[in-house]
Amino acid sequence: MMAAPDPARRGRLLFGGFALVLAVWPLGIDDAYLVSVAITMLWFAAVGQAWNLMMGFAGQLSLGHTLYVGLGAYTAAALYVHFGIGPWIGVWAAVAVAAAAGAVIGGLGFRFGVRGVYFALLTIAFAEFTRIGFDHLDWLGGSAGFFLPLDHDGALPWADLRGPPLLFYYLLLAYTLGLFLLCRAVIARPLGYRWRAVREDQEAAAASGINVFRTKLAAAVMSAALTAPAGVIQAFYYNNLFPDQAFAMHRSIEMILAPIVGGIGTLFGPILGAVVLTPLGEALTLGLEALAIDLPGLKQTVYGVLLVVIVLRLPSGVWPPLARRLGLGDAATRTPDR
Amino acid sequence: MAGRLEVTEIELFYGDARALDRVSLAVEAGTTVAVVGANGAGKTSLIRTIAGLMVPARGRIRFDGQDITGWSSDRVCALGIGQVAEGRQLFGGLSVRENLEMGALVPRARAHRRASRARVLDLFPRLTERLDQAAGTLSGGEQQMLAIGRCLMSCPRLILLDEPSQGLAPALVGQLYRVIAGLKADGLTLVLVEQTVAASLKIADAAYVLEQGRVVRSGTGAELLADPAVRTAYLGL
């Protein structure tokens, strides 16, 4: 009789299988709607993972993460439209701009001891200032919007991200899985330990020799930088940008739902949360349409009630109890050994 | 190893309230110094000031000849001053293993991480069985072992122990003091702040009595144990 694999190995096998399913399923299906839903799902998984790095592991609440999405999107789009610089180079500029914004916000907040909800308010304020600023920035279209040209010679669709939705699907899949592995590697390193020490108890962390300011700043900068590529993909997928959408407050809230529902401070939680929430939202839309119910706000109300039920029933998120049920023990929610 | 600490005339205020009033003490390398006093005497304020968690209004703090007055706590810790704080200040949601790893994050301790962990687990075998358990679920005694273990992971030259016996059963206090005696025998410099006056004075090479933020008595541990005023005020004899 074969011995059961240890939880860590079982976790790797399950994750590999999950990644394989995500990679293979679109190949046999010609359904643009399903692909678009999957793109949305992966997008939220990726930005949720980047946000989770700052809140879930370092304990710093940001409610303005849409700022980094918007900055990333506008930076890469502007370089492409105005200077003909493609998104594969533009994404590095986008990452740099978002990281700089994260450094300014984090630097100001952490230097002056702004904590908890007050820090969250600071992040909202910066996102709002930026939205207002971009509304008046004619070079980037202002409130009338900024549009990316659709024409392309078709030779290398990957090069300028001018391809079909499947191109964006696989790009987001690679980005989401890559982020997962990157975050896994970082939290197992001293920086990841410092983040969790600061999250647990700042004073105890300081007394243990941890520079709390630098540790929190590193989380803010890295989280912002890792959020920006999602903005670049968004810009080249939708081909239009409007400040009141790119920097919208409600977008910031949507971005953090997946990690909260999936399991904040866990590596797989943001992905699982997006897998649960995005299809749930779509299923509600389709269900209400099938029942011919057309009451304004009903979908949002039902969606909200379902969210409340999930959070009340599973306060630590869906992933920790599911991981235990899958025989992964606490290994799936614990730090990988150094 | 060294680890000489010299505190000169430090003053600390909380708003207008004076918490430390020209406190001076000297801790020779490799010795154990006890600081005793009633609740509110300023013992924890003194420890926190040395550890870099509070900045004194006046006075100097020197460690092995280096002026560390006003240094941030991470720099103080990196220099080799470890702290076992009052209430233990463990990372309750993290495992015992992770708590121990936190102690070894200071640069001077990283290279010795594995050896330090082996030493800590040798000193506290109970922690070996609890490595994957959340620190917050340990018993009081185990938490104190972990707090000391985490501090040892940073390879300190001097350890500030703030009320280590607080909340422990009498049998565990005896066990704790055997561990402290072992650390002393290893040549570590110890500053022991305690309300358990008799036990701390017995183990101390030198001791200071704090009252209302001021040093009112000092001497060897044995001298203060024999001091009628100390015996009346702190030992109820």
Give a short summary of the structure:
The complex is a heterodimer of chains A (338) and B (237). Chain A is mostly helical.
Distance between the termini of chain A: 32 Å
This entry's quaternary arrangement is heterodimer
Helix content of chain B: 25-40%
Task: Write down the secondary-structure element order of chain A.
Answer: HHHHHEHHHHHEHHHHH
Query: What would the average pLDDT of chain A be, to the nearest integer?
Result: 91
Shape estimate of chain B: globular
Main sheet attributes: strand count, strand direction, barrel closure of chain B: 6 strands, mixed
| Helix segment tally of chain A | 15
| Global Rg of chain B | 17 Å
Spatial arrangement of strands, main beta sheet of chain A: 1-2
The CA-CA distance between the termini of chain B, in Å, is 39 Å
Biggest sheet of chain A: strands, sense, closure? 2 strands, antiparallel
Per-chain topology:
The complex is a heterodimer of chains A (338) and B (237).
Chain A: H1 7-24, H2 32-57, H3 66-83, H4 87-111, H5 116-135, E1 146-147, H6 157-160, H7 165-187, H8 190-200, H9 202-207, H10 212-238, E2 240-241, H11 243-246, H12 249-262, H13 269-290, H14 298-313, H15 319-325
Antiparallel strand pairs in A: 1-2
Helix pairs in contact in A: 2-7, 2-8, 2-10, 2-12, 2-13, 3-4, 3-10, 4-10, 7-10, 8-10, 12-13
Chain B: E1 5-14, E2 17-27, E3 32-37, H1 43-50, E4 58-63, E5 66-67, H2 73-79, E6 81-84, H3 96-103, H4 107-110, H5 113-123, H6 125-129, H7 140-153, E7 158-162, H8 170-185, E8 189-194, H9 197-203, E9 206-211, E10 214-219, H10 221-226, H11 228-234
Parallel strand pairs in B: 3-8, 3-9, 6-7, 7-8
Antiparallel strand pairs in B: 1-2, 1-4, 4-5, 9-10
Helix pairs in contact in B: 3-7, 5-7
